[in-house]
Amino acid sequence: MPHFGTAIAYFVSIMEHKIRQNRRWFQKMLIFLVFGLFTARAQAQLLAPTITVSTSSTNVSIGDSVTITVVAHCNVGVLSSVSCLLNNGSLPTNAVFSLLSGVINIDSTVTNTLSISHITSASAGIYTVKYGDLLGLLNLSASVPITINILPTVTAIVGNSGMIEQGFKIQFSAPTGSNVVVEASSDMNNWAALTTNLVSNGTLTYTDAVAKTASCRFYRARIK
Description:
Elements: H1 2-46, E1 50-53, E2 57-60, E3 66-74, E4 79-86, E5 95-101, E6 108-116, E7 125-133, E8 142-150, E9 155-156, E10 162-164, E11 167-173, E12 179-185, E13 192-198, E14 203-208, E15 218-223
Parallel strand pairs: 2-8
Antiparallel strand pairs: 1-3, 3-6, 4-7, 5-6, 7-8, 9-11, 10-11, 11-14, 12-13, 12-15
């Protein structure tokens, strides 16, 4: 009977020793997995695609159109998705983001274009282009912001415009400190710049001497 009790105690001691070994092994494996996952994500960030854009910020006027080229290159990772948002929401109906060339794959270069036509005030803001990796497993992604700014408008002051002895005088209202380009045309298709002046006190006045001998003359102004 004493031998039997000793055997039981010895068996329990062995089991406790194995449990402690298994616990230590499990802890080591858990630390190894956490460290490996952290290292993989850190390496993935270093391998994230590089993105270049033709311009990161542009100033446009209402009614203008603009096309911006976005190029992404990834040396190791597998790019599997690309998206474009305006102010973290969907694109307006007059904006198109399209793939021009490249394959979303290992060691690849992908070229996209962001085209915005007939720009309105709703087109302004920050467009974010993002490329992501396969299923997001390694968080291998990169994004680039593109800012579209709407220039203030220039308005003709009709009451202060008209023919005078020196020619046709036309006055515009525009933000003080802005550079305004005044253009003229005889057919509204071909425009020529007449002058570029700095606006002071919110108005700009220009007199076109050519108007005295021209049969027809049209004017427009824009902020440069």
